[in-house]
């Protein structure tokens, strides 16, 4: 019987995900090594504080505070970067890839903001960069698009990519809780990032949308080039009215390509989506992604989008691909040949401008409860070629009222201008809130 090759792994960072990788490799070691035909040996674990108590037990000799024991160690076959952030993690990833190393990451911010550069460094130096765990936790969406659906061109990819915001919206809908009440529970359960803006302002999910846009269409998009809105302005009233109209409110990433016009739209925002849509039924901390290809039609993937086990599962999946590649299998990562295909995919592709983004909208306008208010709002919207589809009104105890309306088809430019005009109107108490009505057939 031949001796199994030993694959040595070094971990940069040993937080929740890093500990999950160690725990689940140890838990399933026998089956995993049988499938891979290799022995996995995590020999180095780089941390800031080696004496900090942790959930998993690691031999003390494995710990170090020196990243060079992983990055510059010729005996390390696979570098797992799980530090997070785009500072030291970027410098260490660059250094490892320049040495031709295999790097596995769960760092969506790093891939989103520096992926183009890092893939280039990897290709120029014989390194390899794996990033399955950077999007949608345990859902294998990157492998699905890159491998299983490789024969397709993708007209539409949309879904829920942040479990924390989905948990908050689910609790608000089911229990009638306010945003602040639900956020408090989410904090206690440890669902919210230390930097809460990543979850609540949509930044985390937007990073993932940018990665999926590149994977599907070969074009890197910057965050400041796309619509990125979080869930802070969504109220219980919005959720209630949406429900009465047959919708749920979800924080959606939407990547849509018009192949005839050769334009790409990448956006992340809360939206009303029909209850009959599969993605609308994805609740709690789960993620769901719908992928529409020109060959296969629509495929939907649903699973845990965050948490130790879900994310570490994806990291270990990338480790497995790296092990197969190290042992001679074709590499499942972006190569120089792939880069040429991606350049062709993105050839002439332009980002859609706001006027290109058409659809229906939901508006909530807080007004003084006076005679003729609805007529004034109607006139302002009509001046921007926006017409009502439905109207609801709710009187408040302080003598003001909320007017909730849905529109017929309009576009981003018209709605933004109408909101500015409404804000300047004396009968409007606060800046209006708008949500898009997402219809996959748009």
Which keywords apply here?
single chain, 442 residues, alpha/beta, Rossmann fold, Dihydrodipicolinate Reductase, domain 2, Alpha-Beta Plaits, 3 domains, twelve-stranded mixed sheet, six-stranded parallel sheet
Description:
This protein is of the alpha/beta class. The chain folds into three domains: 5-137 and 309-345, Rossmann fold, CATH 3.40.50.720; 151-303, 2-Layer Sandwich (Dihydrodipicolinate Reductase, domain 2), CATH 3.30.360.10; 354-438, Alpha-Beta Plaits (2-Layer Sandwich). The protein is built from 15 helices and 18 strands. Strands 7, 8, 9, 10, 11, 12, 13, 14, 15, 16, 17 and 18 form a twelve-stranded mixed sheet that branches. A six-stranded parallel sheet has the order 3-2-1-4-5-6, sandwiched between helices. Helix 1 (16-27) crosses helix 12 (308-326) and helix 14 runs antiparallel to helix 15 (412-424).
